[in-house]
């Protein structure tokens, strides 16, 4: 259960802090990812998707990490969201080429998703008495 709490809190804090930073400065992520933000619409889109959405996901992870009865659902959320990101990013890397930003993000997302799956299995095994 400690692994579940650690995963939910560390990923929650990472997403929340990165999201708030991107909300405060959309140019931050644009610089890391090699994007250009030519106007207000692009700035708002990055602020919403990289800022608001990621901060919200981080808050959800932290919420689920606060109580043991929510660990399983929080880990499932983490597995699906980060696993989806990792799969889509891997496809993007194969189709469009690599970059240090995307390689690093793929490793982070893949490891987090796999660790969430592992932690879910540990919880299920503990519950079944195995």
Spell out the blueprint of helices and strands.
Elements: H1 2-24, H2 26-33, H3 40-65, H4 71-96, H5 100-128
Number of strands: 0
Low-pLDDT stretches: none
In DSSP terms (H or I, runs of 4 or more residues), the helix count works out at 5
What count of domains describes the coordinates? Answer: 1
Rg estimate, integer Å: 16 Å
* Sheet with the most strands, sense and barrel status: none
Mean pLDDT across every amino acid position: 95
Q: Topology as H/E string?
A: HHHHH
How much of the residues is beta strand, in percent? under 5%
**Could you say which structural class the secondary elements and strand pairing correspond to?**
mainly alpha
Share of helix, binned: over 70%
What global shape is seen? globular
Distance between the termini: 15 Å
Please explain how this structure is put together:
With 130 residues, the chain is mainly α. The protein has helices at 2-24, 26-33, 40-65, 71-96, 100-128. It has one domain (2-128). The longest helix has 29 residues, at 100-128. It is globular, with a radius of gyration of 16 Å.
Question: Which key phrases capture this entry?
Answer:
130 residues, 86% helix
Short description:
The chain is 86% helix and 0% strand.
